Amino acid sequence: MPRTRLYRHGELVSENFPPEDISDYLPEDGATVWLDMCAPTEADLALIGEELGLHELAMEDAVHAHQRPKLDRYESHCYLTAYAVRFDPESCQLTADEVGVFVTPRAVVTVRPDEGLDIDDVVARWDESKHLAASGVGFLVHGLLDYVVDSHFDAVQALDGNIEDLEDMVFAEQPDNTDMQRQALTLRRSLVTLRRVVLPMREVVNTLMRREHGIVDEAITPYFQDVYDHVLRASEWTESLRDLVTTIRETQLNIQSTRLNLIMKKVTGWAAIIAVPTAITGFYGQNVPYPGSGQPWGFWVSAMSILLLSGGLYLLFKRRDWL
């Protein structure tokens, strides 16, 4: 069901009234209306569009999900697209929840394709900062963006923790390379998704704060600047984590290569040692007369040669750290 709210001069005066009454409240002095629609049909949006004078292109973007984060400016209103995110530390999967926002001089309409974005948390933020409600639509937009950007920050923090665990796995004595590679690729994919929704928010918030749009007044400007600062920090943190995952992956490959070289070095050293008795016993196994053939001292010469040469090679390889 659609949710509605009516603020008048910064005070909440009505809630959950029928959307059809919005046009009756808008002409009132100091009135600000909020309407939330979850998975609306084209007919639902068309009805609201007629009442608020929404542009057909903006309504088309609201119906078709998976828009990029943006702020479009039309003659009578703005249309904003943003994504809140949720990160699951167990599966390392990131989920992005889209919300479209129509911002008119006296009304804010939020459109959600599904229940992924928790609108109750947004309403709770409005209730916690009701002293800013006198700023009208700027107050409503700030609460929504503050919730969205905080979800970005929470996801970045959780990703940072998982990447630290991945670093510990790289230097483990017996690492599970398959699990490590899976986690690294999943984290990288999540960071790519997060980057796509975080980076454009810098331009979105910065554009909203421009005076010509008439959305942000002087009273709420510092709060939008705080949101913008959080956007910058989340963006920089996301970029650094993306580079860190790449570095971890390269380090893992270098460690695997080093371990493989060490194994090959040891195998080659032992193969050289084993080649000595093979050569000597092969020489003494010839079916032709040779010095010591058929004599006990010939056996002892071959045995001592094997022990001395093999021992010498072992000590030489050990001294050079080949074994």
UniProtKB/TrEMBL annotation:
One of its GO terms (molecular function) is magnesium ion transmembrane transporter activity. Coiled coil: none annotated. Keywords: Cell membrane, Membrane, Transmembrane, Transmembrane helix, Transport. It is found in: Cell membrane. InterPro entries: CorA_cytoplasmic_dom, CorA_TM1_TM2, MgTranspt_CorA/ZnTranspt_ZntB. Its main location: membrane. The chain crosses the membrane at residues 267-285, 297-317. The keyword Zinc does not apply. It is a multi-pass membrane protein. Gene3D superfamilies: CorA soluble domain-like, Magnesium transport protein CorA, transmembrane region. One of its GO terms (cellular component) is plasma membrane. Belongs to the CorA metal ion transporter (MIT) (TC 1.A.35) family. This is Magnesium transporter. It comes from Actinophytocola xanthii.
